[in-house]
Design a protein that fits this description.
Shape: globular
Radius of gyration: 16 Å
CATH architecture: Sandwich
Strand order of the largest sheet: 1-8-3-6
CATH superfamily: Jelly Rolls
Number of helices: 6
Helix content: 25-40%
CATH topology: Jelly Rolls
Structural class: alpha+beta
Length: about 180
């Protein structure tokens, strides 16, 4: 699994690679959560038992367009992975990026215990896989490969933020 070096998104956002990921998916399962997890690049390469464990530690929720999923400054107790739909990221410096299926958010508050750093608003109807705080740490302990994937994406987000801040300080348009 490769990350797109220009973004923090997994290459799943490429339609051809999405099709390949579906073709490599483990033996079909009747559990809807596992079926959804098979489409999420963060879990690519996980076998059905590993996916089942993730499914046991998560729940699926749906929210209509316009729903505030997380509010900046509020405590965070959940990690979200987008299964279907898209959300907008709003930070103190303005509107951020759009997140799409396969992208995730909410991990920072779980990692450092600080309040949410962004407001996330559903721009379409969304289906989310949600892992609560207690299960998040258990999941990371059981899936070290997941830790490395999350850290890689977090590092890219920090770099992009640094570039944006530098551009603002120079008075140029952020990348």
């Amino acid at each position: 699994m490769d990350l797109d070096p220009r973004t923090d998104r997994l290459s799943f956002n490429d339609p051809d690679e999405a099709e390949q990921a579906r073709a490599r998916a483990p033996v079909p399962s009747h559990d809807a959560r596992i079926l959804h997890l098979q489409r999420v690049p963060l879990f690519s390469g996980f076998n059905e038992n590993e996916l089942r464990r993730v499914a046991e530690l998560s729940r699926i929720a749906e929210a209509p367009a316009g729903t505030v999923v997380t509010q900046m400054g509020e405590p965070g107790d959940s990690f979200f992975i987008i299964i279907d739909g898209s959300v907008a990221v709003r930070t103190p410096v303005g509107a951020g990026s759009q997140l799409q299926p396969g992208d995730f958010f909410g991990e920072m508050s779980l990692l450092d215990g600080e309040p949410r750093s962004a407001t996330i608003v559903a721009t379409t109807d969304v289906r989310l896989l949600i892992v609560d705080r207690s299960h998040f740490w258990r999941l990371l302990g059981e899936a070290p490969d997941l830790v490395s994937r999350i850290l890689t994406i977090l590092s890219r987000r920090v770099r992009r933020l640094e570039q944006t801040v530098q551009a603002i300080l120079r008075g140029t348009n952020p990348p």
